[in-house]
Request: fold
Amino acid sequence: MSSDRPGAIAGFKSFVLRGNVVDLAVAVVVGAAFTAIVNAVAMDLIGSVIAAVGGAPDLDGVGFALNGTQILVGPVLTAIVNFVIVAAVVYFLVVVPVNRLAHLQDPDPVQAVPTEPADVALLREIRDLLREQGAADRPAPPA
Reply:
């Protein structure tokens, strides 16, 4: 088991220092900070406008009674409305501007030609060679 340790530690070091892990860590931290901005715009700004127009910022008390049990549908409706508000804020304040900036930087992006994976190219080459070899080994058809 002790012989596996140097390999495990080296593997862990390689994993941690790989670019994907660092990028993911940065994305999580930035995402957490960005969540506060999105929630402030969605709940404080847009939620306040909805409360001013509709009279209540949430629907938590909406429900009905069934056999003496209160069934609350308000929290579900509130969650749906909050999701739509957050999605709209992210789309209009992040996605649309980023797409517009990307389009301004490269208005006519060249479509990348998909390249064939190396294993597929090798298999295609083997197939062609076998086909040629099979044609050379077959006797000529009688005339």
